[in-house]
Prior knowledge:
disordered N terminus; 7 strands; five-stranded parallel β-sheet; alpha/beta; single chain; disordered C terminus; two-stranded antiparallel sheet
Amino acid sequence: MRRLLAFAPLALLSTACAVRGATPSSALEYAGDPSPQAHLVEAPREADAVAGWQLPAESPWSRYEKLTLLTYLGDDPMPVMLPEVTQLPVVQRAEVAAARLAAAGMPPGTLWIIDLRGAASVAFGATLSRALPRRIAPVLTFNNWPAEAEVVPAEETLSALLALRPVLPAAADVDATPVFLLDAFRLARRDEEMPDDVTDNRYFLLGSDLPDAATLRAQGITRVVYVVEDRDAVSNEEDDLHDPAVEFQSAGIGFSMVDLAWFDRLGAAPDWNTNLGYHAIVIGSRFTIFDSPGFFARGRGGFGGARSVAGGHPSVGGGGRSFASPHVSSGHGG
């Protein structure tokens, strides 16, 4: 598949980040590794691929998972060209980080949000599920499809989903630790208007795509751990996570931000309260991209949905056309 990932001018990115703070998407735009070479893969049937990631209906986190990307596959096995994502350094680092977390043992009462390049988030969740003695609930949030001349490299994430299968919780594992897997490219090039020959397969998460504070409390969750690639390059949670993070904080749920290097320093039996407390951040009021009326006008085919114009659909990437919109405080998976 051919991809257009021409990076935004650094000056433009620097200006935007100075106003909103650097987020995973803005950091990846000018620091991400190039996509690896594609190779021929015998893709499974959609039903088989979905079964490999679908949480049991009894899981309290199953309502939040999005299997959209896996529905790109057809009803019959077929050969497809997909990138060899296991060659990506960030994927390899994510696997090492997850293995070290498994060795340390998961802290109780936590929800994990893994906001890395899509394939790396998949690698983290799959590795953790296999290495940890107790079960986790890996929750997919990928809400788009691969396309020609695409903005988001969705086929990288799809390749990882097919190559790196998790060990899923059983129906009885209702206390499995939730690990939400996000694609940090989802809001890429937010300050640019896409050319006509580009397929805008970007999307963003609604507040309802994450559990609210009351749900977390009911499940015994007292802290959210937010994982990014490089804490030095990221100063804020991603814009579409800002409102949920504010709600968590207001409800007394802690919010800690760590990066892949943090896992290298984990000991065998960490003092989780001290360690995660040291990395806690205060979510203050700030300008996000959804405060800009021009954001939806620039998005056009991507970032569509109910908040911009009727016709978007939360389970199909790139749905709907989007036009200038008044103040928007949360997004819609496009």
